[in-house]
Design a protein that fits this description.
The structure is a single chain. With 271 residues, the protein is of the alpha/beta class. Helices cover 33% and strands 16% of the residues. The protein contains ten helices and nine strands. Strands 1-2-4-5-6-7-8-9 form an eight-stranded parallel beta barrel, surrounded by six helices.
Length: 271
């Protein structure tokens, strides 16, 4: 996930704290989570099944994660599909850019896997149907059509089970226009390094979640605004030590490659 840089001149902007508080009190609420510390399954439970597939999503559901992270892109002919990379080369037996391939071409590809079972690239609507009433979606909005995504979310009755991660500044305006009540998430611009700058940023970007922010001053300020902070802890070496370190920073959620193990750990040590 890449940071997007806001064009607002944060250093020169003054925002009244009382105004900000009133704004955030009226902001969309996050979906309900069963755990006090939110557990996000990175690209599904992709250690057990290929990433961004229905199989990895089912694994995330079965292990009790609060969210499954889904990367969204649009095919050449306008179909919304789950795929992290801009190209299909790494994860499938095909080649080329997602944006240059039709759904018929994408549908025919096999997703690489360890257990030799055949997996396919899923359409967004199929993931929505699978997740409804079972798990929330952390929608990493890569390159996709906002209006079409919102249309499919509404059709699936999933309006209250999704948080959208913004990768580009222009995505913010499009989501606010299409779905004003959709909870939004993003990374903090590199320019924001102190409380005053964070106050200014949140005065213009009405965000419900920030990710990968560990500075104590900024964490405290985010919490004062009612903004949650989720950290990416996924790595081959992640485990109780790294989870405990992250939790002690005072964050509200963790994105992991080991959702089943994390759920067990949190139940035993945190919740």
């Amino acid at each position: 996930m890449k940071l997007f840089v806001t064009t607002i001149c944060l250093l020169m902007l003054f925002v009244d704290p009382a105004t900000l508080l009133a704004q955030h009190q009226s902001h969309p609420a996050l979906p309900h989570s069963r755990h006090k510390t939110v557990v996000i399954a990175h690209r599904g439970n992709h250690v057990n099944a290929p990433e961004n597939t229905l199989a990895s999503t089912r694994e995330a559901i079965s292990c009790g994660a609060d969210y499954v992270e889904v990367d969204l892109r649009t095919s050449k002919d306008g179909h919304l599909i789950a795929m992290h990379d801009g190209k299909v080369d790494r994860t499938t037996n095909g080649t080329g850019k997602v944006a240059d391939l039709t759904w018929q071409e994408l549908e025919s590809l096999q997703v690489f896997n360890r257990n030799k079972r055949t997996h396919r690239i899923p359409q967004f609507r199929d993931i929505l149907a699978l997740c409804k009433g079972k798990i929330n979606i952390y929608l990493d909005f890569k390159e996709a059509d906002v209006a079409e995504a919102w249309k499919e979310i509404k059709a699936a009755g999933m309006e209250h089970q999704i948080v959208v991660y913004l990768n580009k500044e222009e995505q913010y305006k499009k989501w606010k226009e299409a779905a004003p009540d959709m909870p939004l998430m993003t990374s903090l611009p590199k320019e924001v390094t102190n409380k005053a700058q964070l106050d200014a940023f949140l005065g213009h970007m009405h965000i419900q979640v920030l990710d990968n922010m560990t500075d104590p001053e900024l964490l405290k300020a985010a919490h004062e605004h009612g903004v949650s902070v989720w950290l990416d802890v996924q790595s081959p070496d992640e485990g109780p030590a790294s989870w405990n370190e992250a939790l002690h920073k005072g964050v509200q959620g963790l994105q992991t490659d080991k959702p089943a193990e994390m759920v067990t750990y949190l139940k035993a040590h945190v919740q």
